[in-house]
Batch of 2 targets.
Target 1
Amino acid sequence: MADLGAIQKKILSFRNERDWAQFHDPKNLAETLSIEAGELLENFLWKTTEQSRNLTAEELKNVREELADIFIFLTYLSEEYQIDLL
Amino acid sequence: MADLGAIQKKILSFRNERDWAQFHDPKNLAETLSIEAGELLENFLWKTTEQSRNLTAEELKNVREELADIFIFLTYLSEEYQIDLL
Amino acid sequence: MADLGAIQKKILSFRNERDWAQFHDPKNLAETLSIEAGELLENFLWKTTEQSRNLTAEELKNVREELADIFIFLTYLSEEYQIDLL
Amino acid sequence: MADLGAIQKKILSFRNERDWAQFHDPKNLAETLSIEAGELLENFLWKTTEQSRNLTAEELKNVREELADIFIFLTYLSEEYQIDLL
């Protein structure tokens, strides 16, 4: 398993190279978490709780990407407030 | 900084001691992320984007707790699909 | 059944008396809808889809209030863009 | 302005023709509201509150569609509990 600190540094470098920090006020970052959480939830919509345990490969791929997006924006928000997630 | 793997093990032990895994199907876990993201967003509601950079100590405390909740449920969902977040 | 136009006028009068329109930019109003939708969803969390059809009286009361809140903010947003919901 | 009762009957007929009511348990319907609210919010993301008052025609079209979707699912949920929205 890679190191969390190293990954978070990469995520923040990626942002700095694009000069995005100026747009990343907490209000907008909190909005992204709501939006991404909705996109994640969409993979389980119209399923029973039982069916949600059996996703197709396509759905599983989507879920992985949404989880990664949520983790990235969680990292940005933590950085904003100097919060150590761990 | 603590180790992510160690923290995630603690989160999962905490769950196992309470025998909660049976309720933690992905559909319900994805719902928690939407609900927690909404609670996080509530701290920024009626603020301008500028004002969102200046939270009170009380609001900041709430934000920290919501970020922690989101991280915990992200860990549960990752565990479900054997996804390494990093 | 009462008349939608009459109800919406009441909702808007209620707002005007409190001089709230100045805070009701679309970004904040859209945030309220996400937050309220999360609060609604909370009533169904950890339930199976079957269980969600059998709420307690207390839960049902909460659901009614959340649906009303969502309808009110939907009315504000529609007013902003002069959209006739019907 | 058309009549709310008449519109709601149309929405419910549309559903009955497709035999969708069986899937429309409250848990799934509440999920749709969270998902749609997230899609609505996406139109305002990365904007300041001031900018959110000036949408492009394309964005405005999206907003109208999301508001309509939210209204439709609000109608389904109200029907489930025999709630008169007005």
Target 2
Amino acid sequence: MKYCLHCASPLVLRIPEGDDRERLCCDNCNAIFYLNPKNIVGTLPVYENKVLLCKRAIEPRLGKWTLPAGFMENGESSLTGAIRETKEEAGASVTVMDDCLYTLFNLPSINQVYMFFRVELTNLDFTPGYESKEVALFNEQEIPWSEIAFPVVKSTLEHYFKDLQNQHFPVRMFDVLHEKDRSITIHLVSIQEKVD
Amino acid sequence: MKYCLHCASPLVLRIPEGDDRERLCCDNCNAIFYLNPKNIVGTLPVYENKVLLCKRAIEPRLGKWTLPAGFMENGESSLTGAIRETKEEAGASVTVMDDCLYTLFNLPSINQVYMFFRVELTNLDFTPGYESKEVALFNEQEIPWSEIAFPVVKSTLEHYFKDLQNQHFPVRMFDVLHEKDRSITIHLVSIQEKVD
């Protein structure tokens, strides 16, 4: 980012008055540009004891399997965005449960927040969209565990199959940290307590 | 937004190849600019039977009472952002509970997502920061209900005092809709079921 979006003047990196961190500032029109994390919203689509996964037709992680998810757009809610991505990537229609919010992941190293919602496939009329090579249903044993595209997807699937045994699906939030040795660690931040 | 951040050429609003909605595109350097919702993260700081509120010293809603909250920054998680805002706006140190995630609000009309976390004040050493005129503790009866800055704050407070009676604090997500007559309606999207 080098030039002002409003007046095309060169931007300067400095701490604006009343702020405590460097921002891209325009000294011509006084605009300040803030960079904030983006939300990625997706679903965990369930049919009987199986979940729907998409084989990625695009980079990153081309050829790996993922849950349908994508960037939340302006003008939509996180759930409607997740349903839209499920339609776009898997051609799937879904039914939403009252307790659909399921996992949230903060990825501070790459300025992203993921949110996954549990949904039920309305029918078996799914088909790969532009960003998918293949869409299929898998039970726990069938899931290509070593071919999952992203740690947040793998974590969501692992928790889902454990929670399925208890028939209790608590909302969980995690921090995903990219360590210096390039390993990734996932830390539980919040979990809804089970009420006795 | 009129000029490219990278090369200062004029931007054009059009649908890029493979996309389905208009984006700001640069036909000189081929950059595409995506606009996405921003997250606002905050806390509901509790001390005994009281909650901490801040009287706003800045617009919007100058002079109204709010929970400490602000834009999530790049490089932080939503919870660490909420704790940072609580320190900045109320000078308050907090202790985080295992089930801290509490309310989420999608505001599609203004491209925002709010997240509030329940936390406990570590001590009574709080003091107004730059953006607050006053910081104080209120029990349910003392809260200036007609002077609350934002509907998402009022909703979070209302649910908190109801949940306090049941000692059960489910994670709730809402859509906040700005209607054509300028009224605001709040719709429950997801609630963690109570387990028997």
